[in-house]
Amino acid sequence: MQEEVKKHTKKIYKTMTNKEHTLGEKSKEIIMEIFIIVFAVTLSIWLHSWSEHRHQQEEVAVFLGNLKNDIKNDIKNIDIEKKGYQNSNKGYEKILALTTLQLDSIYKSKNVVDFPIYSHGQIMSIGNYEGFKSSGKIGYIEDEKLKQKILNYYQIYLPAVNEVNKIYNDFLFKCFDKMIENADKPEEKMYADPKFKKTIEFLVKLGKNNIRVYDQNTKPEAYELIKEIDNELQK
């Protein structure tokens, strides 16, 4: 492009210094050369912008494809965690239903009460999102509705999952603390203790609340986001 501009600039100069042409002829030739230069530069800029835009949208398509896979894995992991909460809650509810006489009978027969332990960790995938965002490429997504849904999912719904899981884990460790505090007492006394039972009751409530967060907030948003991504990739 620079060579083309130089070539036509030289023509303009030659035209201006050509003594054989009239002023009118020079003006026509100069205007024509200027038009050619402006057209060539404009076309070059447009082609460069078009190429850059196409490259950006190719990056977006790859990102959205990876994001879709991440969200599908999120849904699978949520279902695994949900099942973990449900199984734990069943175990805790069995403990809460045991009477003092039943507890005495269990331990007199040399059996034990099974206390479910299911710690919930990081289950959501954020690597692809964080990498794309940190590179400043989120703005490449032209569909504002889709972009907002992605931001909401990763900045609101996923942190909510991690937060409720953390609260649950913290309360689970409080149960462990109470077990340690009562290590010098028979287990049947600990399980019959009203304070310990109340702690387990709260643990069950937290588990049910976290299942509600999964089912009513995170999963519907995940499915909706997958739908929006599919619509975008099919354009």
H-E order: HHHHHHH
Largest sheet data: none
Average of the residue pLDDT scores: 85
Helix/strand-derived class? mainly alpha
Count of DSSP E strands? 0
Question: Roughly what fraction of the amino acids lie in strands?
Answer: under 5%
* Structure annotation, total helices: 7
Give the overall silhouette.
rod-shaped
Write the layout of secondary structure elements.
Layout: H1 2-17, H2 23-97, H3 100-108, H4 127-134, H5 144-181, H6 187-192, H7 194-233
Detailed description of the structure:
By secondary structure, this protein is an all-alpha fold. The longest helix is centred in the N-terminal third of the chain and has 75 residues. It is rod-shaped and about 115 Å long. The two termini are 34 Å apart.
Please describe the structure with a list of short key phrases separated by commas or semicolons.
single chain; 235 residues; mainly alpha; 7 helices; 0% strand; rod-shaped
Concise overview:
The chain is mostly helical and 235 residues long. 82% of the residues lie in helices and 0% in strands.
